[in-house]
């Protein structure tokens, strides 16, 4: 009996795995982390991105952490979200996405809630000997997550969303 139950569970798991493998993802995602180097050439600032695995990364290094995608479906995709966590060993600087109509949202609570910048938080302060609560703006350096809401990804299109962070 135990053998038959095990066989049935193994068969169901195998079928589930086969079914999951039979449905390809509509997006091909590629993650990259690059060191951003800025130089001045002919009076203009030029940025160079170098694969972070091929150069020294020390505190103060500016990183470009990107998710690049390619739509591999024949149909347009609607209402997609792309989420990225700000690594705790870094400090958020900026976010960018090259998709038209994108909405960029931020979180300062580990991704529990998101909202447009500037985020607000409630703090308790002492005024005239009394504790009162105030709404204050969250500093971008306190952001923990970024979400890009992509209203439309055209079939066959490509895009890139990235964070700029500084290593602590």
TrEMBL record:
InterPro entries xref list: UCP014979
UniProt entry keywords in alphabetical sequence: Signal
Domain of life of the native organism: Bacteria
Keyword Signal set for record: yes
Keyword Signal attributed: yes
Signal peptide: 1-22
Name of the protein in its database record: DUF11 domain-containing protein
